[in-house]
Amino acid sequence: MNSLHVKSYSVFLIFLAFVFSMAVRLIWVYQFSDYDAFIYAGQFMINTNDGYYWAEGARDLLSGTFQKNDLSPITSAPAWLTYIFAKILPTSFETLIFYMPSLLGSLIVVPMILIGQNLKLIEVGFLASLLASIAVSYYNRTMIGYYDTDMLNIVFPAFLMWSLILGMRTKEEKYLLITGLEIIAYRWWYPQSYSLEVSFFVLILLYTIIYERKNLFNYQLLSIMLLAMMGLDGLLRLVIVCCSYIVFRQEKWQRFTFFILAGALALFFVTGGFTPIWYQLKGFVFKDAIEVSKDVLPLHFFSVMQTVREAGQIPFTTFAERISGHTITFVLSVVGYGFMAFNYRVMLLGLPLLGLGFLALFGGLRFTIYAVPVCAFGIAYLLFTCSVYVQKLFIHQKLAQVVKSSFVIVSSLAILYPNLLHVMDYRVPTVFNKTEVESLVMLQSIASREDYVVAWWDYGYPIRYYSDVKTLIDGGKHGGDVNFPVSYALTSPQDKAAKLARFEVEYTEMAFAKAEQNETVMNNTAQMTLDVGLKDANDFLEVLSSDIRLPQKTRDIYFYLPYRMMGIFPTVAQFSNLDIMSGKTTRQPFFFQSNRFQDTPTELNLGSGVVLNKTKGTLKIGQQEVPLKRFVKTGYRADKKMMVEENAMHANGQMSVIYMQAYNSFLVLDEAMFDSSYIQLFVLEKYDEKWFEPIILEPHAKVFKLKI
Prior knowledge:
Distance between the termini: 78 Å
Strand content: 5-15%
Shape: globular
């Protein structure tokens, strides 16, 4: 087969693999095509919270309106790429962000087939591309509606791996420039790519030292990589890389290669070196439960990394299935990759991706996606290698070919099947349902762009996108220090919640102003404490229940309280259940929700060892039996007005039970949780008119406006 036919064949296989990847992703659309709750304004909504962050940036770029300190990512790569697509493509913005992940994510098939073509293993590359495109972890983060940086986070390093492999094999100078441009583009798209880029550099360096110490091309490649990785502005790095490429193309200047390499190495360390890598490792692998602020008044806060599921440790079975679909497939993939790297040394360039994937065993399932393409190559290579041995078992040539083809087809289907099964079972919902979005759009018509909405960080980005307001915390701004006041407000009585919300919003704006003037910015809670003349933050929190002087009001504040937060309310409370001066746990409130229960004439079994004795009016929690203070039943009339029936039980009771009839759900909670602003405002709609007024009262979400 001549080179033209090889290229045509490669293009054909790329087309087939791309269509396969897209077709699999459309299964989700087919499954929910008639589900109205996932559709708003005639289009499916996206299914990842972070997607609304990039959508906000693209929306603001399209409208040309930005507000000061609104945290909109108008300079980010995803927002700009979406903006460009929205300008040139004849489709709605909602349709664009819904389908972009599947279109861009499916591009993974291109570098994989091109790598296979270069190694003269194009069928291996084709099968690997099919598996990689729908592997559990990769599919989850590039599926329809998963509008996030993940749609290109593996595509870029896969292309980088391709250019490095071809550069090392062909020594063609064009791959110097291609590699440099890929690194710059990857960093532009995903600033956290730093550690993976450095890993590729270290591997090329070791490969050169061991196998090709006298090859000048390798040192030029290392120089280009260092210059592209420097901690400088992307446009400046682009100019430097292009200039270096021009120099390396001139034979008379090639004698300066080692001087350029030394200069590039020096610039690399001067502009950042390994600092960003250590920062990332510290955040995801070496996770501290308590963060300590470095202010004049040191405070202790609960680390958000302790509650993020994708940053937690995972069992080996989950790890293997997310990478290859099945544990056996994964083990064979690693074996196959070992054989492939032994026969094709350049495949050692897959180690950075494989190594980062294995970091998932310690740093959480978010890393498994990186190992997907490498393991896909491994199992595909092993399959085709075995098929050759199977063919040799038969003397008759035609029969041998039929058996070989059958073996490849059956084995390929066996490899793909678990992943396809996962796709059909993985019916992930949209971030919000239609009625929730309608409430947020209603809020947009009520609030101004400078107003704040107090809500948990999970809902920060969608609130900003649909209501076009400001939030205190979101998917990117959710450190322990900023989560604390929001958690405290949601889990404290209404008077404290209202006052702390006013303090936090005004001090947040003051912090923005100080930062613009390059003044020292202290943690808000610490600054509030000192400003009211106290030296203990716990004392400040206590005086919130008194007639404390509040900051001057500059904008309105709204509380967004959704039903969906009920399931994570104990986690929300965890961020304020500590003495922030010492870091020790103080409050240990009790909160239990049950949607599965057994009701008999004498008792109500709520599961998990929680049983209500109807006759005695007591609550058994495990082996402990405590008196019940009250039993509350809530429901809605035909006009959607809430009804609350409260029955007092024991004056000395320690617990309360709330039956939310509309949700067929029971809550068991102590007095601290019962008195919290979330329970009082959302569950019972008992708002203190001195502090709050209702704005939106819907069963799925309620919005209250602060009156101070």
